């Protein structure tokens, strides 16, 4: 009984204490309105607010001795309201709320990831789909939206409708010199820009016929005026020029090697390369070299907020890619790729290998010599690091290394003993680049870029019968720095800068028996200053980019002045007129001494100008184009004239007549590039046609003027692509006239023990025809994880396309024609996992 009484008393005491405590707490809290009235009288201040936001809001009053600041700070913490001083004795009280939106590029219609959205109290970053949420204090609070390369927006919070997330479109700054003017030039992701260039954005790219991987240098060959006479990425011909006349840049680093498998696939990993831009004329004055054209590859310039990666596998190689955020102001991209033939062989690998060694010493050696243990592999690794220490400073570091290795053994019986010696070919490149950009204010910015690139080609040819080893080495080492300042005033921007480039080229031939060594080393330092203007009116209907570059070559004490111009004018609602022009020069070019150099696989070697036997290449070019775009239709026609002086016969890949001549000359091209494209819903179809008359001029040859080895008189491409959220399908036809060649004189083929050729390039190889198909199926697995499965078929009809030929005397003293052929039907399959 006593125990139950004590329990009852304890329970009563507990409840009484609880209600007593509750009553005391309720007595200590007062309506905020009443507290503010007291503070207004005591401190002679005024509080402005919407009456309804203080309804039923209670606070715990502080001690009367507390300062006004402590009162307001405490009430802000208790209620979540914001107190802001707007005058000497006036305070506003607001209730925070959340706004949201989606950021889009007004031109690309793509989401903008990584943009900074700021208020006076909070800072957030937009997500992958461009979305953001941020808290604001009042409808009239300014929301600042910043994204590198775009005009900063400063809307008020009241412009965001309550309960909805509007799409906010951002415009590129005028400092962006190449806004998109024709979107989806061929397919989605290929766009024409205001400076006359064409860009392929791989983040939005769909598909092209025959390609399942976004091979950078294969993709550019889909553009009018860009072909490869031998179907490789190491021999790209822009408007009738040779491959060495192309400036190839990877994030501003000049590259002297462009292909794996000695030219069959690009050596630049497509996973880390975001965009490639092709310039055929009207080059910006800040660039030199590339008398035929320029190919600019760039990585993503925006910081990554979340980790991204991918794993890929096809019948040739495996690759891995990662984009890793490092804190809030830094991100690191890594990409690596390697061939898989040492793990397993596939039909496409065998096809590629046989194509590379076709009609070389690796395939056809001397009688009684057996080639064996043929091994080939390639690799590439790319790194890009970004660091933005402040909103105005941006630092970029790049590193790339890639290479090809080919080895085989030669075995024969020497003095009744079996002797085996190894031969091989190594081709690799290593490069590093550093860039720093500073935006001083809204009108002025500066940029510093520096790079070093090293290229090496080494061949060892072992003659097992003679017991001889022949070593050939070609190396290029180049260092460059460029300083640039850009000033913007309304719709005009002017850029002034300085550039210095030092190039060293070494060629070495080393024979052990009999002993012979020749090593030629040349170094050239060139300085340049440049001035580039850019004007674009408010509606984008008129763009004018004049520029001039002054180069000084101290070794030859020579100045070269090179004006550049790019003009674009809108005519009515649907037409644009485009005019481009440029003068350029180039100090480093490629030559071929003998067809069996470097085992006959990669016969070209880089050579620095001596301004005598190897002149400086100089080009001048002008073009005029008209474009029509309406209702999914695009018609683009551009006529051009081009002349390049300072070429040599050794640089033009002669394989028949004049193969062993060393003469100087020039070539001129008169051409027309046309494109007709129609987009309907998810379909995009195009028909492109290129016409050119490309002639050599060599005064000291028997024929002073004759067709160029790169004269593709007629080139036609027809393609169609279908793309939706799940499937990309593409098919196309490529046709062009055969490559010019020379043949022996009929019934008088040999004179004095030499092949007696008819007029140079007076006939052609059979016309080229190829049909390709590709399909990619896209699978969404789970959130943040998706996959792609694709297949491509190259040369569906298995047509035998001759790409080159040459003649050699046979044992019966009659000329034998030897022909090289392009790839036959080639199947490739790809699987990729993105996360």
UniProtKB/TrEMBL annotation:
It is found in: Cell outer membrane. Residues 214-292 form the TonB-dependent receptor plug domain. It comes from the Bacteria. Keywords: Cell outer membrane, Membrane, Receptor. GO terms for cellular component: cell outer membrane. Pfam families: Plug. Its main location: membrane. This is TonB-dependent receptor.
């Amino acid at each position: 009984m006593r125990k139950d009484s004590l329990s009852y008393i304890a329970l009563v005491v507990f409840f009484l204490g609880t209600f007593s405590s509750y009553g005391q707490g309720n007595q200590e809290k007062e309506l905020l309105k009443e507290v503010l009235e007291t503070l207004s009288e005591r401190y002679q201040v005024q509080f402005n607010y919407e009456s309804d936001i203080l309804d039923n809001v209670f606070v715990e009053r502080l001690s009367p001795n507390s300062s006004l600041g402590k009162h307001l700070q405490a009430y802000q913490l208790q209620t979540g309201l914001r107190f802001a001083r707007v005058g000497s004795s006036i305070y506003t009280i607001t209730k925070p709320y959340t706004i949201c939106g989606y950021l889009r590029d007004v031109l690309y219609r793509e989401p903008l990831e990584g943009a900074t959205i700021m208020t006076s109290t909070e800072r957030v970053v937009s997500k992958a789909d461009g979305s953001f949420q941020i808290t604001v204090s009042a409808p009239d609070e300014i929301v600042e939206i910043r994204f590198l390369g775009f005009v900063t927006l400063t809307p008020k919070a009241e412009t965001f409708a309550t309960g909805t997330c509007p799409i906010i479109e951002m415009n590129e700054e005028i400092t962006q010199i190449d806004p998109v003017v024709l979107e989806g030039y061929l397919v989605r992701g290929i766009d024409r820009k205001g400076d006359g260039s064409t860009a392929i954005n791989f983040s939005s790219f769909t598909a092209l016929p025959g390609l399942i991987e976004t091979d950078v240098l294969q993709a550019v060959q889909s553009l009018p005026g860009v072909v490869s006479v031998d179907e490789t990425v190491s021999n790209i011909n822009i408007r009738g020029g040779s491959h060495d006349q192309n400036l190839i840049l990877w994030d501003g680093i000049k590259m002297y090697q462009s292909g794996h498998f000695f030219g069959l696939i690009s050596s630049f990993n497509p996973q880390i390369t975001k965009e490639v831009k092709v310039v055929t004329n009207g080059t910006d004055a800040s660039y030199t070299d590339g008398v035929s054209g320029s190919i600019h590859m760039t990585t993503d310039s925006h910081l990554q907020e979340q980790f991204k990666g991918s794993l890929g596998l096809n019948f040739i190689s495996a690759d891995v890619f990662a984009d890793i955020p490092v804190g809030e102001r830094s991100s690191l991209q890594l990409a690596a790729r390697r061939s898989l033939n040492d793990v397993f062989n596939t039909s496409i690998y065998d096809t590629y290998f046989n194509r590379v060694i076709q009609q070389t010493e690796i395939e056809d050696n001397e009688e009684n010599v057996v080639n064996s243990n043929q091994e080939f592999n390639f690799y590439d690794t790319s790194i890009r690091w970004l660091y933005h220490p402040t909103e105005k400073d941006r630092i970029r570091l790049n590193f790339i290394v890639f290479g090809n290795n080919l080895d085989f053994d030669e075995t024969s019986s020497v003095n009744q003993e079996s002797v085996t010696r190894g031969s091989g070919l190594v081709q690799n490149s290593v490069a590093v680049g550093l860039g720093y950009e500073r935006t001083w204010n809204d009108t002025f910015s500066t940029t510093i870029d520096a790079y070093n690139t090293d290229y090496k080609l080494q061949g060892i040819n072992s003659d097992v019968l003679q017991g001889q080893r022949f070593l050939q080495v070609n190396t290029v080492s180049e260092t460059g720095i460029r300083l640039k300042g850009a000033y913007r005033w309304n719709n005009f921007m002017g850029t002034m800068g300085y550039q210095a480039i030092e190039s060293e080229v070494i060629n070495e031939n080393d024979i052990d028996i009999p002993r012979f060594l020749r090593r030629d080393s040349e170094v050239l330092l060139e300085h340049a200053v440049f001035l580039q203007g850019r004007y674009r009116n408010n509606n984008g209907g008129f763009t004018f980019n004049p520029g001039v570059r002054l180069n000084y070559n101290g070794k030859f004490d020579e100045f070269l002045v090179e004006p550049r111009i790019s003009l674009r004018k809108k005519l009515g609602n649907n037409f644009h007129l485009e005019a481009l022009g440029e003068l350029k020069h180039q100090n480093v070019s490629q030559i071929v001494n003998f067809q069996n150099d470097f085992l006959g696989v990669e016969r070209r070697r880089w050579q620095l100008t001596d301004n005598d036997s190897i002149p400086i290449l100089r080009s001048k070019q002008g073009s005029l184009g008209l474009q029509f775009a309406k209702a999914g239709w695009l018609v683009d026609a551009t006529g051009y004239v081009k002349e390049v002086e300072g070429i040599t016969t050794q640089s033009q890949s002669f394989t028949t007549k004049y193969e062993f001549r060393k003469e100087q000359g020039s070539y001129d091209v008169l051409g027309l590039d046309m494109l007709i494209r129609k987009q309907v819903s998810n379909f995009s179809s195009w028909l492109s046609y290129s016409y050119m008359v490309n002639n050599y001029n060599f005064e000291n040859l028997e024929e002073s003027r004759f067709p160029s080895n790169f004269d593709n008189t007629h080139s036609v491409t027809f393609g169609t692509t279908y793309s939706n959220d799940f499937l990309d399908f593409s098919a196309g036809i490529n046709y062009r006239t055969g490559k010019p060649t020379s043949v022996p004189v009929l019934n008088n083929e040999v004179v004095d023990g030499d092949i007696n050729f008819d007029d140079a390039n007076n006939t052609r190889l059979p016309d080229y025809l190829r049909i390709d198909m590709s399909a990619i199926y896209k699978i969404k697995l789970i959130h943040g994880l998706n996959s792609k499965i694709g297949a491509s078929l190259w040369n569906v009809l298995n047509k035998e396309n001759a790409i080159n030929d040459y003649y050699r005397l046979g044992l019966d003293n009659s000329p034998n024609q030897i022909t090289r052929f392009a790839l036959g039907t080639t199947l490739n399959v790809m699987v990729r996992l993105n996360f």
